[in-house]
Write a structure and sequence with these properties.
The complex is a heterodimer of chains A (175) and B (515). Chain A has eight helices and two strands, in the order H-E-H-H-H-E-H-H-H-H. With 175 residues, chain A is mostly helical. The chains are: A mainly alpha (175), B mainly alpha (515).
Chain lengths: 175, 515
């Protein structure tokens, strides 16, 4: 058997079909929520969601049927592949999501500049950067650039914090 | 629609006046294009606060120049390290990298630059000439046909772009469903807004875009320490003799450049078809009509010229459906659509009557950007390959923090930052499981528009869905929808059968490995 065919067969046998169902399950869940929550509205308000939703549910049913057939044929399992495997990158990814959630929650108090500085610092640390000079130079540089370009020059109304409250009036701007 | 020479002259003058924004955009675009996995739309998303703060003409000139330049930049790592900076440069690796291995990297780069700029220039000029006719076509599309056009565009994007057409179509319809969130147009009742007031106006496009593209890409990028292994970078010291030889080869294949750039233009007009497909089609066409087809894949100059001129021909093409019927031809056009909508520009056939300066100005800016590129790129060539060495542990935090802040900039809601993160996770899962993020995004963008046309059709038909099949043009489009679903399905069935035959044929056990 040629190498390419053997590899293709191996891939098909090892197909992680559980991962293939995440988006359809998400989509079906949302569609059902849409259809149920809009069921008491006038037809004009739910026509679009119903037409699109019914087609989407039919497509999802076909995808589920395909997965079931492949499972029965023994060409895959209900595993989640890379998505379910615990790897260092997966841990870092989850830590980054956690840091971003904290950043979003704290930005009304920290302000954009300080928040950006801290989130950059934390994110680079999570990804394994340890040299203090690089950490502070990159984080400081990015925060300073955003502050100068967007807040001072363009006057974008990003959430203000201690840095903006002290520096913006000094530079002749208002927040 | 006739040509107004005064308008053309004023547009040309306006375009030249915007050189100050075109030059940095071109340089940035080349840089961005050279970073694999980093694309025009990601950069535009990061710089969205900047583009939203500019006036519409400046913003469009900036976006268009950056977009065109990324297609040129994508060829640099494709040639030097066998890694395409953009999907459109994937075909360039076939002969470009072989030229590098033979010590002809500089010649390959010159071929790539000349083919890209000439291809882009020729098609942008041709598009200006063709646009009035294309816009007229748009006038004949009524709400019933528009419903079919949107489904056709969505299905085409899904079927062509995704490896598995069914997955692509599910992604597209999931996007349409997300696009249905918000209050309805007639009674103003909220639907599926999860109780969030911030979603009553529908799902904001900027956070959806940021999440699906930039954040999900950053999450994927983390799996590599640097984008390109340092050991893979070839010393590409420039020699003028190589540059001159590259220019000579470019002149030799001038006809191929023109022809394949039009292949790119035509493919670009089809929503969703994009640069990746165009470059492979052009490569295949060049090989098919070549007198020496066996030379392809061995470091043959036309193997660099064809894909590079085609992927730049696409840039004008993708803007045509956006301008003429309001359906973005690709993900970068979708980003531009967001900016245009933010500035209150209504896309579609009426754009040519109401805002001709915008409709045509964009192509004048494109022409200018290609002229600027032609004069900037050659001296910069030798330094370009170095950008692929930026460590991802710096690049990923940079992308994540700047895009999350960018999500806030549009509506100034902290809620939008969280929404971008949610879409980032959805986008990452979609990428990992081959559900196409572009299809989801196009669905979200088309959602409200689709609802508007569908409702209009249904009200005319008094709620009867068969109204959607009452027009000849519409029915032809529906037939195309069915064909675009059936053909990829039949093709995959055929491949499956081929694999089974190969598996079961005894000769396959000892046969040569297919090329």
């Amino acid at each position: 058997m040629s190498q390419k065919v053997a590899q293709s067969l191996r891939q098909r046998r090892n197909a992680q079909l559980g991962a293939d169902l995440i988006i359809p399950v998400l989509a079906a869940g949302f569609t059902l929520y849409y259809l149920i929550s809009s069921s008491n509205l006038v037809w004009e308000a739910r026509a679009n969601g119903t037409v699109v939703g019914v087609v989407l549910l039919a497509l999802i049913a076909i995808q589920v049927a395909r997965v079931v057939l492949r499972l029965r044929g023994g060409t895959g399992s209900l595993g989640f592949g890379d998505l379910g495997r615990w790897t260092p990158a997966q841990g870092q990814r989850l830590a980054l999501i956690g840091v971003l959630i904290l950043f979003i929650a704290a930005i009304p108090w920290l302000g954009t500049t300080l928040g950006l500085f801290l989130v950059m610092l934390a994110a680079m640390w999570i990804l394994g950067l340890r040299e203090p000079v690089t950490l502070f130079a990159v984080a400081g540089g990015v925060a300073a650039a955003v502050f100068l370009v967007f807040i001072v020059l363009l006057g974008a109304r990003f959430p203000p914090g201690p840095v903006e409250r002290v520096l913006v009036p000094l530079l002749g701007g208002g927040i | 629609m006739g040509w107004d020479s005064a308008l053309l002259l004023s547009l040309a003058v306006d375009a030249v006046m915007l050189t100050w924004v075109v030059v940095p955009a071109v340089l940035l675009g080349i840089l961005v294009g050279a970073i694999p996995g980093f694309s025009a739309q990601n950069t535009l998303i990061i710089l969205l606060p900047l583009t939203l703060a500019m006036d519409i003409n400046t913003a469009l000139a900036f976006m268009v120049s950056l977009y065109c330049a990324t297609h040129l930049g994508g060829g640099i790592p494709a040639i030097l390290v066998n890694m395409p900076g953009t999907g459109g440069a994937a075909a360039t690796t076939l002969d470009g990298y072989q030229m590098t291995l033979k010590g002809r990297a500089q010649q390959a780069l010159v071929l790539c630059f000349v083919a890209s700029t000439v291809g882009g220039l020729v098609t942008s000029i041709a598009t200006v000439a063709l646009l009035p006719f294309l816009a007229q076509v748009g006038m004949y599309l009524r709400s019933v046909e528009m419903v079919a056009v949107m489904v056709f565009g969505l299905v085409l994007i899904a079927a062509i772009a995704a490896d598995d057409p069914l997955k692509g179509i599910i992604a597209g319809f999931f996007g349409l469903m997300i696009g249905a969130i918000g209050t309805d147009h007639i009674y103003g009742t909220p639907r599926a807004a999860f109780g969030f007031l911030e979603l009553y106006d529908g799902v904001p496009l900027v956070p959806a875009l940021i999440g699906l593209f930039a954040i999900s890409e950053a999450f994927s990028m983390m799996e590599r320490s640097t984008i390109v292994p340092r050991s893979a970078v070839v010393d590409s010291r420039a020699h003028w003799a190589d540059t001159i030889e590259g220019l000579r080869l470019s002149l030799k294949y001038w006809w191929l450049t023109i022809w394949t750039s039009f292949v790119g233009l035509l493919i670009g007009v089809v929503p969703g078809a994009g640069a990746s497909i165009a470059s492979f089609v052009a490569y295949q066409q060049a090989r098919m009509f070549s007198k020496t087809p066996d030379e392809f894949g061995k470091g043959f100059a036309p193997g660099v010229v064809a894909p590079e001129s085609a992927n730049n021909g696409v840039t004008s093409g993708t803007l045509v459906p956006l301008m003429a019927i309001g359906v973005p031809g690709g993900s970068t056009a979708a980003v531009m659509m967001v900016v245009l909508q933010y500035h209150g520009i209504v896309l579609g056939p009426r754009l040519f009557i109401e805002s001709p300066d915008i409709a045509y100005g964009i192509f004048f800016s494109m022409t200018l950007s290609y002229i600027v590129m032609l004069f900037t790129i050659l001296p910069l060539a030798r330094y370009m390959s170095q950008v692929v060495l930026i460590p991802t542990r710096i690049l990923v935090p940079l992308i994540l923090s700047l895009t999350i802040v960018g999500a806030f900039a549009n509506r100034e809601y902290v809620f939008d930052m969280g929404l971008a993160l949610v879409f980032g996770v959805i986008g990452y899962i979609a990428r990992k499981t081959n559900y196409h993020v572009t299809a989801i995004l196009i669905g979200i963008i088309l959602g409200p528009l689709f609802e508007q046309y569908l409702l209009r059709s249904l009200r005319i038909g008094q709620g009867d869905l068969t109204i959607l099949f009452s027009s000849t043009t519409g029915n032809v489009l529906w037939a195309f929808v069915v064909l675009s679903v059936l053909l990829p399905w039949l093709r995959s069935r055929q491949q499956e059968r081929q694999r089974r035959i190969e598996r079961e044929t005894p000769s396959a056990l000892t046969g040569d490995q297919p090329r």
